[in-house]
Each structure stands twice: as structure tokens, then as C-alpha cells.
Design a protein that fits this description.
Length: about 120
């Protein structure tokens, strides 16, 4: 069983910054990909950014240049540094972790953390 827990959400004014964290725990042998998604009210969930085991990253066009994803492999943790936040960044942010235990592969999601950006 693998658990994923996000933290760091909150209320911030436009132009401000927040740093989200996502920690995976359990019988983890390796982690291949760690991804941040977000879902705004009335909208579909969308990919924000991901980072693979080798460190390569990719971002949605709407956040490129403002958000930075990073990971600490020793802690099985991924971070999302969000700068120059805009009201349209308001959403529940979800973390997805894909990897393997010693027995099987896994694809685990966290419960989400709310980010609200006021204008």
C-alpha cells in the first residue's frame, strides 16, 4: 500500500507564491513519475507539471516560467513552487505518484490541497 499526502495549499493574493509538497510513503521500491494536477470548480482536471526519475520535467503552457517542480528522491517527495500566482490558478491541486513496490507497480493519488488566489 502506498499513501500520498499533499500539503502547502492556502489563500494567497495575486502575485504571491506558495510551495506545495507531496510525500509518498509505504512499501516503495522505486518512483518513476511524480505529477501535479489541478482541478478548478466546474472544470476538468488538468496536468500542471511532472518530473521523472532522471530529473526531466515538463509543464503546462499556462504555468511555464512561473511554476517549478522538483523532487527529493531520498524522501519520496515532490514539490511545486508556484510564483506570480494568478486568480486562474485557483484549484484543488492533486499529486500523482507512479512507481513500483517489490511486488507490483502502483499508481497512487493524494486527496488534494486547495489553492485559492485572490485578486
Amino acid at each position: 500500500q502506498v499513501q500520498v499526502v499533499e500539503s502547502g495549499g492556502g489563500l494567497v493574493q495575486a502575485g504571491g507564491s506558495l510551495r506545495l509538497s507531496c510525500a509518498a510513503s509505504g512499501s516503495i521500491f522505486s518512483i518513476a513519475v511524480m505529477t501535479w494536477y489541478r482541478q478548478a470548480p466546474g472544470k476538468q482536471r488538468e496536468l500542471v507539471a511532472f518530473i521523472i526519475s532522471g530529473g526531466s520535467t515538463n509543464y503546462a503552457g499556462s504555468v511555464k516560467g512561473r511554476f517549478t517542480i522538483s523532487r527529493d528522491n531520498a524522501k519520496n517527495t515532490v514539490y511545486l513552487q508556484m510564483n506570480s500566482l494568478k486568480p486562474e490558478d485557483t484549484a484543488v491541486y492533486y499529486c500523482r505518484v507512479q512507481g513500483a513496490t517489490t511486488a507490483r507497480s502502483f499508481d497512487a493519488w493524494g486527496q488534494g490541497t486547495q489553492v485559492t488566489v485572490s485578486s
